[in-house]
């Protein structure tokens, strides 16, 4: 969707297993590649938000795991920034079907699952 390319060296392989693997990669690429691109765009927009509004280390983007972003946020800002992050993630690109982001707040990652 965003022009990402995937090279499939085994797509013309004589070995059936290698060719089948390349075919699966070709089928999965548009969905997985687009999801990765959308996540990266969302991370950029959320980072801009944090840098513009929260300059004292009150909000830190810690990591990305597949389709999740993990943050450290001061307790008194958690509810407020959660809504702002959710909006950025849901509006990073306009699709025919809206992207929905879920937000969890907890003292540790286990509480958020």
Given helix and strand content, the structural type is mainly alpha
Please outline the major beta sheet.
2 strands, antiparallel
Calculate the mean pLDDT score and round it.
92
**Helical residues, percent:** 40-55%
Order of helices and strands: HEEHH
CATH second-level architecture of the domain at 39-112: 2-Layer Sandwich
**Which of globular, elongated, flat, extended, rod-shaped describes the shape?**
elongated
Quickly count the helices.
3
- The end-to-end distance, rounded to whole angstroms, is 30 Å
Low-confidence stretches: none
Count every beta strand, where a strand is a DSSP E run of 2 or more residues: 2
Describe it:
This protein is mostly helical. The chain has a domain at 39-112: 2-Layer Sandwich (Alpha-Beta Plaits), CATH 3.30.70.370. Helices cover 49% and strands 12% of the residues. It has 3 helices and 2 strands. Strands 1-2 form a two-stranded antiparallel sheet. α1 (16-53) crosses α2. This is DNA-directed DNA polymerase. It is an enzyme of class 2 (transferase).
Quickly list its features.
single chain, 113 residues, mainly alpha, Alpha-Beta Plaits, two-stranded antiparallel sheet, 12% strand, EC 2.7.7.7, DNA replication, DNA_polymerase_A, DNA-directed DNA polymerase activity, DNA/RNA_pol_sf
């Amino acid at each position: 969707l965003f022009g990402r390319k995937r090279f499939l060296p085994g797509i013309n392989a004589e070995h059936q297993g290698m060719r089948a693997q390349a075919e699966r990669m070709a089928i999965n690429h548009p969905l997985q590649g687009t999801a990765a691109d959308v996540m990266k765009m969302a991370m950029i927009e959320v980072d801009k938000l944090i840098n513009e509004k929260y300059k004292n280390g009150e909000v830190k983007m810690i990591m990305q795991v597949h389709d999740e972003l993990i943050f450290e946020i001061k307790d008194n800002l958690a509810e407020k920034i959660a809504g702002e992050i959710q909006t950025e993630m849901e509006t990073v690109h306009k699709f025919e079907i809206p992207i929905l982001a879920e937000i969890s707040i907890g003292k540790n990652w286990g509480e958020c699952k």
